[in-house]
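Dear U.,

For the methods section draft, I wanted the exact inputs and outputs in one place so we can describe them consistently. I've listed the two proteins in the order they'll appear in the manuscript figures. Please don't edit the token lines directly; just add comments below if something needs changing.

First protein:
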Amino acid sequence: MATRAEGERQIGLSAEPLDVDALVQAVRTDAHGAVVTFLGVTRETSPDDPRPVAALEYEAYPLAAIAEMEAIAREAEATYGPLGIAMVHRTGVVALGEPSVVVVVASPHRAHAFDACRFAIDALKARAAIWKKELYADGGGAWVPNTGS
């Protein structure tokens, strides 16, 4: 896994399954009264193609993706106050039902945790150098925009 951890921040890419509990523990402290977790999981249908999805495949440019994810974390902290934040995205093939991305935000207050988590996942999908291919049950596949739908 390519990650960079800073205090209560863990940012990275991983070819291995994501450990949600470990990410929660990496950012949660006794100063945080709220912990919000977002899991993006591989679903069985695509919003743009009627064929059943068997898996997703992700490719990333690690240096650019991690740098952008770090920038997103800094922006979230600047906007929503002191946070613990983890953002880790899978690379390679991700089976149905498995998490492709995990964002965890810990904050003293729930409103900031929810808002920062939503900001982080939306910005990650829009800005990080990560590309998604849908692998269909019929053996086909297509690269699709990683828009967060």
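Second protein (the one for the lower panel):
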Amino acid sequence: MKKLSIFNTVLVFVLIILFTSCERVIDIELPNDEDLLVVEGTIELGEFPKVLVTRNQGFFNNFPSDFEGFIDAFVIKDAIVTVSDGAQTFNLTYIEIPIYPFFFYTSTDFTGEFGKNYKLTVTADNKTVKAVTSIKPPVPIDSLYFGLNVFDVNEDSLGFIYLEFKDPDTIGNAYRIYAKKRMEPFFFPVEGTTFSDQFINGRNFSIFSGQSDKPFGIQDTFVPQEFFYKLGDTVDIRLASVDYTTYDFYNTLEAAAGGNGNPFSAPTIVKSNIEGGLGVWAGLSYTTQTVIAKLP
């Protein structure tokens, strides 16, 4: 009984401290938001360049709730955009089209070529930003096949597409997977499939892919049919080769997005290759194969 009485006394004392402890008000002075240009540009092997130029926004500023408001507030339509391949400099023109990606700067005077470095220069809002990217040689896909979801032993119709390829025996290769089902009009990247050859250099490698992320898609709950492929789906897979600065951007972007809202994740700084601004200027080449989701 004496031990119990001592325990109760200590417990009451701790509770008194907790409920009567002082509160300290901490004022945090946040830095002013810096006005920066945001660039999202790609040049693919055999394709015309596409460059979107926008403005950034402060974290606590209101974001437009409608598409037209977003365009008016952020999209820059009068920028001076040029791309140089070392021999020639090309002026890009702003265009708008009724399908994704809707608006961007481009030129039909040249397409991306393997082995060239492409220097991008963007001038707008009294600012100039620059970036350089290159197009790496495409790496062939050895095989594609469908496999049921290994994380659910009861699954009998939903699963992943598995991709196998051999990484070249040269360090510094990097990749990103894009996918679409045959009925979908565009390829989009697959979340979590940006990787380098740091641990697979010169080896045969296998990676699985779920469905690609779709722009403007906001899903509050997990829908298996929108994440996995199902038996009977016809799927086009692209294995994109990217240079290392492009890999750094997409890899850190995915890490930052994956940790968003997670109190236990470490903050991730997105590594942009845009000098003086934000975003990415990405060079890509790819190989594409098609597979029908079926069991062996």
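Candidate sentences for the figure legend, describing the second protein: Residues 54 and 71 are 9 Å apart (CA to CA). The radius of gyration is 25 Å.

Thanks,
Y.
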